[in-house]
Amino acid sequence: MSQSVVAKRYAVALFEIGKGKSNLDQLEEELLVVRSVFLNDESLQEFLGNPRLSSEQKKELIRNVFKDVSKETRNTLLLLVDKRRSDMIADLVDEFVKMKNEARGIAEADVYSVRELTEEETKQIQDVFANKMMINTLRINNIVDPSVLGGIKIRIGNQIYDGTVKTQLKRLEQNLVTANK
Q1: Helix (H, G, I), strand (E, B), or coil: what is residue 153?
Q2: What is the pLDDT of residues 93-119, one digit of tens each?
C-alpha cells in the first residue's frame, strides 16, 4: 500500500475526531507546526528512524517535543511512531489540510509569475478562479519564477491554467506549423 494512501487514512481519522470536537482549526495549526519541525530538523528524523532505539524512547521524545499540542495531535504522532510510520507525517498533514479546505470550500493555488503580485492582482485572481471553480475562497501562494516571461501560470490541485507568454508562443508556433501542412 502506498504511503500516501496510508497517510490519508490517518488524516481522515484525525479529521473526523477534529470535526466531532469542533477543533479543526487548532489541529491544522498544530499539524503545520509539526510538519515544519519534521521537515527542518533532520536530527529528529534520524532519531525516530534509528532501529537501535526502542519505541518507548522515541515516544518519550515526541511527548517532550510536542508537549504543548492537543491530545489528538500528540496521540496521532505517538501512533505513527508505534507503527514505524513517522516518515509520513508531512503527507498526513497535507492530506488533513486538503480535507479541511474541501470541507470549508477553500482551495490552495500556486501562482507562478515573473514578479511578486500586487494585492489587487491577487484579489482579482482569487475572485475569478474561486468563481470558476465554484468554491468559497482561494488561497494564493505566489511563486516568483524568472522563467515566466510574462503572464501567469496557476496550479490548483491537479489542474493547471497556463496563461504565460511562453505557452502562448508555443501554441502560436504549433498553429503556424499545422496550418502550413
Answers
A1: strand
A2: 999 998 998 888 888 889 999 999 899
Q: Please provide the DSSP assignment of 31-66 as one string.
A: HHHHHHHHHH-HHHHHHHH-TTS-HHHHHHHHHHHT
Please state the domain count of the chain.
2
Q: Residue 142: enclosing H or E segment and its boundaries?
A: strand 137-144
* Burial class of residue 135, CB neighbours in 10 A (0-12, 13-18, 19+): middle
Place of cell 518519550: 60
| Whole-number Å distance between alpha carbons of 160 and 14 | 30
| 66 in Cβ contact with 73 (< 8 Å) | yes
Q: pTM of the prediction?
A: 0.70
Does residue 81 share a domain with residue 16? yes
Containing structural domain, residue 151: 106-179
Give yes or no: residues 19 and 66 share one domain: yes
